[in-house]
Amino acid sequence: MTAQPSWDRMPPVSLEAERAALGACLVDREALNVVMDILQPEDFYDALHRAAFEIVFSMSQRDRPVDPLTFLEEVSRQGKTELLGGQAFVGSLIDSVPTTANVEYHAGIVRDKAIHRRLISAGNTIVKLGYSTDMDVDDALEEAERAVFEIAQKRNAVNFRHVGEVLGSTFLQIEERYNSVDQEVAGFNSGFFDLDRLTGGFQPGSLNIVAARPSMGKTAFAVNIAQFGGQKQKLPVLIFSLEMGAEQLVQRMLGAEAKINIHDLRIGSFPQSSWEDLAEAAGRLSGYPIYIDDSSMLSTLEFRARCRRFKSRHKEIGLILVDYLQLMNSSRRIDNKQQEVAEISRALKGVARELNTPVIALSQLSRAVEQRTEKKPQLSDLRDSGAIEQDADTVMMLYRPGYYDSAAPGEEEDNRAYINLGKNRNGPTGEVMLIFFREFTRFVNPDRRF
After folding, report:
1. Do the bridges between strand 430-437 and strand 394-399 make them parallel or antiparallel, or are there none, so unpaired?
2. What percent of the chain has pLDDT over 90?
3. Model pLDDT, residue 383
4. Which of 50, 283, 337, 347 to pair with 99, CA 20 to 30 A apart?
5. CA-CA distance, 413 to 407, in Å (whole number)?
6. For 177-203, what is the mean pLDDT?
7. Mean pLDDT of the chain
8. Structure confidence at residue 12 (pLDDT)
9. pLDDT tens digits for 372-399?
10. CATH 1.10.1240.10 given to domain 15-155
11. Distance of alpha carbon 52 from alpha carbon 330, whole angstroms
């Protein structure tokens, strides 16, 4: 049996609901299935009730019929007749069940009381961690968060589902895509049509890497995606900006939205007529569900906790954007940079899977790109760790030829940008061309649609 923590006052418990749930298991096979799907033996507070349900649980797992007679026989076989009280105990359980119609409600009461007790136990654990001054504070925070989160995980756990059950929801998804205006995009739409045709959109639970050398425009590219998503899909977008402050980032977003030269905007040197464009852009931008966290020393622990809290409050996250991966810190001290980046990469992937939300993480490419005649980046150029490539579902490498080949005086600047989709776990790879308006920090489709 699972040991119970010590209590200084009566813990949350409903012995009546425990008896009703147990009694229903003994008289109704369907009620047994309901209870088995909701409760575990450790959810029962009373030691006798817990022991009785362990027997019922084991009988059901062995596909043994469960009724008052077979239950008593199993109790006798296990030598627990004296402990449980035999027929008198069974009779008291059955008397607690006027009808099995409410068994799901009764089992829910037992489960909820058990959750309250676990929360109290987790609180005691957190108090002890608070007094453990010799313990590393990051480790203590990790343990404290885990103590509470494990309770939520168990509460929301999904059991095995038969393929027939999954087919129902799968067909609904296929039908929605078939009837959709944009049939080629099933995930979060980037707004870049050729890219979305390759990826199908950023899928829930996926880790997507945007990699480039400095000044290529990777932040602008990712923020453009966030703006498009906020405008068209109306789903919350979280931006973790580790490199620049929120005001600087929003200034860029305003420039892209209003099509005002970002340098002029930064120094306040733009024509009077641009104020109207700026005000209209600010009005649109304020309506987008985009949220910015500009903590510069963010750890994976803090990142995970903040994403979880946002999800619990808002129920849904359309996209999480991290700018950029190498600036995030591991939750524990790691002297080796490659190992630290590998841990960060796994943490990002874990959050994507846990919250069923696409994550876009920006990443630096190594200097090896600069040392080659051919400047187009390759997967091997990912900086610090091959784990990034391994964990990622897609890897997009951004490259602008005009950055290396400066225009001669009087010549038009080469504003082509290429997205090399070097990895796509669930689809084809390939290259996509975009147009980059550097003065607005804005990428657009080749036909200028955005």
Report:
1. unpaired
2. 8
3. 63
4. 50
5. 5
6. 74
7. 79
8. 92
9. 777 777 777 776 667 777 788 888 888 8
10. no
11. 46
Tokens of 150: 């494990």
Residue 365, judged by CB atoms within 10 A of its CB (0-12, 13-18, 19+), counts as: buried
pLDDT at position 16? 92
Determine the pLDDT at residue 246.
80
Q: Which amino acid is at 41?
A: P
The domain spans of the chain are: 15-155, 185-444
Distance CA 45, CA 48 (A): 9
Show the CA angle centred on residue 279, arms to residues 191 and 324, nearest 5°.
Answer: 45
3-class secondary structure, 28: coil
Q: What is the token pair recorded at 10?
A: 């009566």
What's the CA gap between 202 and 51, in Å, rounded? 48
Evaluate if residue 45 carries a pLDDT over 90: yes
**Class of the CATH-defined domain 185-444:** alpha beta
Instruction: Report how far residue 377's alpha carbon sits from residue 400's, in angstroms, rounded to the nearest whole number.
Output: 10
Per the CB < 8 A criterion, the answer to whether 401 and 432 are in contact is no
Task: Round to whole Å and give the CA distance between 238 and 69.
Answer: 58
Contact call for residues 110 and 18 (beta carbons, < 8 A): yes
- Report the share of the chain in percent with pLDDT over 70: 84
- The neighbour count for residue 407, using CB atoms within 10 Å, is 11
pLDDT at 289: 86
Give the end-to-end CA distance of the chain in Å, rounded to a whole number. 61
Compute the average pLDDT of residues 67-78.
88
CB 217 within 8 A of CB 443: yes
Burial of 308 (0-12, 13-18, 19+ CB in 10 A): middle
In DSSP notation, 318-343 reads SEEEEE-GGGSB-SS--S-HHHHHHH
- At 182 the pLDDT is 52
Categorise residue 82: left if φ over 0, alpha if ψ from -120 to 50, beta otherwise.
Answer: alpha
Q: Of the candidates 398, 405, 394, 396, which has an alpha carbon nearest to the alpha carbon of residue 376?
A: 398
The total number of residues shown for the chain amounts to: 450
